Amino acid sequence: MISDENVRTPHSRLTTKLIRSGILDTSAAVVLDALLARDVRLIEGGMPVFEQGDKPESIEIILDGWAVRERVMTDGRRQTVGILCNGDVCDFNIFMMARVDSGCRAVGPVRVARIGRQALNILNRQHPRVGQALWWETMSSASIQREWVANLAARRAEPRIAGLFCMLLARATLAGSVKDAAMAWPFTQVDLASACGLTAEHCNRTLRSLRERDLMVLEDGTIAFPDPAALAELAGFDASALHCDPALLPFANGRAADICESITSSLGQVFA
Amino acid sequence: MISDENVRTPHSRLTTKLIRSGILDTSAAVVLDALLARDVRLIEGGMPVFEQGDKPESIEIILDGWAVRERVMTDGRRQTVGILCNGDVCDFNIFMMARVDSGCRAVGPVRVARIGRQALNILNRQHPRVGQALWWETMSSASIQREWVANLAARRAEPRIAGLFCMLLARATLAGSVKDAAMAWPFTQVDLASACGLTAEHCNRTLRSLRERDLMVLEDGTIAFPDPAALAELAGFDASALHCDPALLPFANGRAADICESITSSLGQVFA
DNA sequence: CGCAGGGTTGAGGAACATCAAGACCAGTGG
DNA sequence: CCACTGGTCTTGATGTTCCTCAACCCTGCG
Hints:
The structure is a homodimer of 272-residue chains. The first copy, chain A, is an alpha+beta fold and 272 residues long. Helices cover 42% and strands 20% of the residues of chain A.
């Protein structure tokens, strides 16, 4: 399921997202892409990208594939606390934290780029705009994490799963890995259940309900959403946590546009 | 409920926390405290610190009191997505984000310090260690947000509320606003229910259960925990998300210590 | 062949939400 | 002074959501 689209396009998923969000211009993107190509690892599904308790020595960027952040609870269970899409920066705490609080595991095969402390310092000095873009990414992921909390706390199983789908579809769309409202889907129902705080059985039944409503189709490791707007309607999804122009997202019902307003219009002032 | 302890001690809650976490030394702390004293507002209970959709122009630091981050859902309900304790930095996205994704509301009276973009830039240039300490705070709050997700997704009502209590007690302890495992508690049961993703009625019944087990006592706007270790045991609480020496926390059952190991031992290398 | 992992379905019960009502208290306008 | 209001806490009755336990099927794999 590793896409080779980055061979056809000049930009990685991360820079695609940052450009679409109005954070990077294409010349700065080239710098970042070159850095991302320097130290790439391929991690097979189920394998850790890093473990809870590790001492962070670098930041990891998901180039292709999906990964989960998970936390080992005191009873031994692993609780998913976030999902990483291609184009996501996986923890920026290299500078300060002595230990990472939660591990990262590949779901399906994943290509990961690594940037060490020294390279990052040089980047910040020589290309401060690129450094700032990485901080933007960090802030953005904090917003996403808050939306994740709202999804768990405020919604029942069906809208909750729908809300997760909307969020992942939107993020993957920004990263450029969605075609016709469909994307790679290496997750098992157990994975999805853990992410949603549900049992696998209940998750299964809820998925069937979504399938019967023609809101999702899953086959061959690909998930498709025939009617993203209806999915967003069911979930009560609000894309404002993504800090992007809602017109870029596949929920063409106008509601998200109302809420987000024209975020991009003010992006010119970001680095003023 | 505004404490005046910061008159007796030289340090604000934020610097107290950063010193205890091994991030700041006392001389750098003086710089930060001076900055925190420059622009202080008093916000009464129920009033917004900032609103969802605002354009961020400064970062806000909670000096005293409690606040909640909340997100307006598409059906109009306000969903709590985080709780801010004294000593917490309330969103660092001033640099990049065009809009804030979730508002901040005072629960009980709150003293807030404001640092503008320019003052922050000067701080970063003249005192890079203090700037780094603020980034540490940001990373730490991301960890706390992940633990929040785990709490919602993995635990039932009783351990979930207990887990929230443990987290808040631990954070307030680091900030220096806890005495004898007791702290100010301006939250209504409706507030608590929203934070835990429960109805107020079920929250009420669960609190009664905790009270009957002698795990909490609430009176006069103060909450006390007669047996923090038992509370942590019930919750299955793991303090590793706090990135501090577990010996500083009031859960003296040895378990947290096992998990966190000696985090502080490696703090000397943080700025290497 | 056996076996493990993933998906699916059913029955029963526990956890939680919903609806409803009442107690208590602070404020507030008559 | 009173009545009235709204907010908070509390408790009960009832229904829904979700979990638990238990199967069973399928596939890939040793």
